[in-house]
Amino acid sequence: MAASSIIIGAGPVGLALAVALAKQGQAVTVVDRAPACPPHDGRTIALAQGSCKILAQLDVWQTLQKSAHPIQEILVSQEKRQGNVHYRSQDVSTDPMGYLIPMELLHSALMARANDEARITLVRPFVPTSLSMDQDHVRLHGEDGKTLEADWCFGVDGRASWVREHLGFQTRSWDYDQVGIVATLTHTRPHNGVAYEHFLASGPVAFLPLTPFSSALVWSQPPGHADYLMGLDEGGFCELLAHVFPFLGELTLSAPRRSYPLAGHFVTTPAKGRTFLVGDAAHGIHPVAGQGFNLGLRDVAWFLDQEPHLFEGSHSAALTSAYTQRRMSDIVSMTAMTHGLVKLFSNESRTLRHLRGVGLGIVNRIPPLKKVLTRHAMGLSLKG
Ligand SMILES: Cc1cc2nc3c(=O)[nH]c(=O)nc-3n(C[C@H](O)[C@H](O)[C@H](O)COP(=O)(O)OP(=O)(O)OC[C@H]3O[C@@H](n4cnc5c(N)ncnc54)[C@H](O)[C@@H]3O)c2cc1C
Questions:
Q1: In terms of CATH, what superfamily is 4-39+103-173+264-343?
Q2: In angstroms, what is the span from residue 159 Cα to ligand 1's centroid?
Q3: What is the pTM (predicted TM-score) of this model?
Q4: Which atom of ligand 1 is found nearest the CA of 10?
Q5: Quick one: which of 49, 67, 123, 149 could link to 378 by a disulfide (CB 3.0–4.6 Å)?
Q6: Residue 130: which pLDDT band, with cuts at 50, 70 and 90?
Q7: Per-domain residue ranges of the chain
Q8: 50 in ligand 1 pocket by Cβ < 6 Å?
């Protein structure tokens, strides 16, 4: 008989996982404590090329593609310094580096796909109160007295994961002492498909290309400075932003600013008994490189690649240790890369500033190294 699973969390990663497991023939129950999908939260998600391929396997990319904006190039630079790196998709592929898509559209396309799948049942609101496991089953108890039972459980309940806490997963966590301000802007100069990552002394500012004269903003700043920026009126905010980032001309806000405190974490082992942690529940990274959802989707791809019969029977140890082995290297290296980037560029030593400029210049002048980094940014295999 086909296996069954409970997924806790109907965010974008939880829904993608539900579709992946249903495609393998599993009966999937997705629960979420929120009574409905959240309203638009201002985030625009940069999807690496590799993620588009996973979403295509889940039959979601086909509907999303028409609303996605291609990223042809990424330009990384730092304030008041020579030296930048210019990654161009055409150096390694005929495809764009990736695409930008408003979170709202991504989430609703995944929800529509899950709703179309007869093997998926969505139960919301469902507030879990306890989770127990034996050798063959998991049982999830809810605040309303209901109990759900299945062969497997997946904690996909985001950064402040209840599953992670409840089952006592060992977790490393830290604070960046930064706040990410997101918004959508129009500008008087075109972006020409370029995503800009500009490192200021106080934190990185990213402009991600949408329509030819509009971009999504992610600006990471220390909390006090972020409060000041959030308190400015729209005109004052745009003027200041255009001063620190003058490359797109005059700026105007086209969607309100929102702010997110930035912190990081990862679990040392993402599986226990018959329960797996997936997405932000297992790892939360700084948005500097726009990789959090991409990383979660690669967790999902691991399950999609497994033979369906591996989920049947009581061989949980083999599956959980394979998941841990295969996913931890990607999780740790992506966490270290984003963490290192934030720390490297927020250090104000003059020597380090100079070395950063030299380093960026070197990467730019060594085509094979640049190709490797470009493929990495696109979420593609480093071979070929
Ligand atoms: C400013 C910013 C910009 C970003 N930009 C990018 C980007 O460009 N590219 C990229 O790849 N990533 C980006 N990310 C990261 C990305 O947004 C996350 O990695 C992604 O949303 C994680 O999805 P998730 O489904 O794991 O978690 P979530 O989206 O947090 O979903 C968790 C779900 O679980 C539910 N839930 C929570 N607790 C419980 C509970 N106790 N019981 C039941 N249900 C529960 C919630 O209601 C929610 O529906 C960005 C993040 C930020 C903050």
A1: FAD/NAD(P)-binding domain (3.50.50.60)
A2: 7
A3: 0.91
A4: 49
A5: 49
A6: very high
A7: 4-39+103-173+264-343
A8: no
